[in-house]
Amino acid sequence: MRRFIIDTDTASDDAVALVMALRAQNIHVEAITCVHGNVPLQVASRNARISVQKAATYQPPVYQGLAIPLLRVLEHRAESAHGADGLGNMNYPEPNVPLADGNAVQKIVDIVAADDSGELELCAIGPMTNIAAAILLAPQVMKKVKNLTVMGGQWRMIDAFTPNAEFNIALDAEAVKIVLESGMHTTFVPIDVCYGHTEIDAADRAVLRSYHTEVGDFFIDSNRCLLEMNRNAYGKDIISMPDPTAIAVLIDPSIITGSFEARADIELRSPDGYGQLLYDLEADDKNCTVITEIDAAKFKDLVFATAKY
């Protein structure tokens, strides 16, 4: 069974991703570590604990990590997409899942250090601040990580968040630079792959509602602000699912139908290009896999299967 630490800035699509991971039969979540991003850190950690409660399976510890980027002033959040509470302004009650003691950065290092299997993996579905800080704290320990799967970056798409960069990457590109130079292999699930046929449309929402389950309703209700934003800003009656797409790749790698290997670097100096990932496909020292295409039907089947009970 594959084992993961999931690092998240838990808002509405992250919440769906966490429930999917916790309900999967073939992976185990060792810990959930929370970071700044979509919402303030305290909100992210609360939403992670709500997600654990909604999954109703097992309870990995939930830790709070870093509340701001490593070097930059935090300039953006995503409440306009996810609501002030990050979960569609649904006002969910305080979860009964406790916040675990200890800082997420140290806990990542501790969990990796204690593992001798060589099989422990990380998954980042928010900015990579916690992961980079763990590398700075214990670089040799973090080299034990088998792979880091990231929802972030771009492949061909422009204007993902800034003209050249995707949200998770652009919020702390210096952290991404540290990760890319750490010796850790990274699998990017870029924003390009997470749009289009993976989006949850009206017919998909009807399927989820038809189950009459708490999780099916949670998947839609917690994303109602995201739905309204997509309707108003883009004229699209859909809920976009970036973070669940990355988790689906972990749960069922057969979903991947296209990818390439490359040496990735990141732009840090240009005001217009900050956060853009750059790929060298000819490099000898390749450090990442970039997913370029997935089976959208399999992805949606996985979302539906998660919500049926």
From TrEMBL:
A Pfam match: IU_nuc_hydro
Organism: Neobittarella massiliensis
Gene Ontology MF annotations: hydrolase activity, hydrolyzing N-glycosyl compounds
Domain of life, per lineage: Bacteria
Alphabetical UniProt keywords: Glycosidase, Hydrolase
Designated name of the protein: Nucleoside hydrolase
Gene3D superfamilies: Ribonucleoside hydrolase-like (3.90.245.10)
Domain Inosine/uridine-preferring nucleoside hydrolase as annotated: residue spans: 5-301
